[in-house]
Design brief:
With 97 residues, the protein is mainly α. 49% of the residues lie in helices and 4% in strands. It contains 3 helices and 2 strands.
Length: 97
């Protein structure tokens, strides 16, 4: 994965190695049995997760439309068009709500 050095990446714990390759990465701190999280670490993790929540909601909506959840079996040329149409429908839903 290539990211511009000035781009801020906010990732979940699945991307553990990203911090080594990209310095400007926010990632929640993990706990284990021997080292529980401090109150400041918990607060930072909450801030990171609240920043990621809107993106996760959009990804979940796209999965509901099955555009990225299943294998796309139609013409590849129209994938981008359909993806953008679904995103536009979702944006209209947000604005009217």
């Amino acid at each position: 994965m290539r990211l511009h050095p000035e781009t801020k990446a906010v990732a979940d714990s699945a991307y553990q190695g990203l911090q080594k390759r990209h310095a400007n990465t926010d990632m929640p701190k993990k706990r284990n049995k021997k080292n529980p999280l401090s109150a400041s670490d918990k607060e930072r993790n909450r801030a990171i997760s609240s920043e990621r929540a809107p993106c996760e909601n959009v990804i979940a909506m796209l999965k509901r439309f099955k555009i990225i959840a299943d294998r796309y079996r139609n013409r590849r040329r129209r994938f981008g068009l359909r993806f953008f149409l679904i995103a536009a429908i979702y944006n209209m839903e947000i604005k009217t709500a």
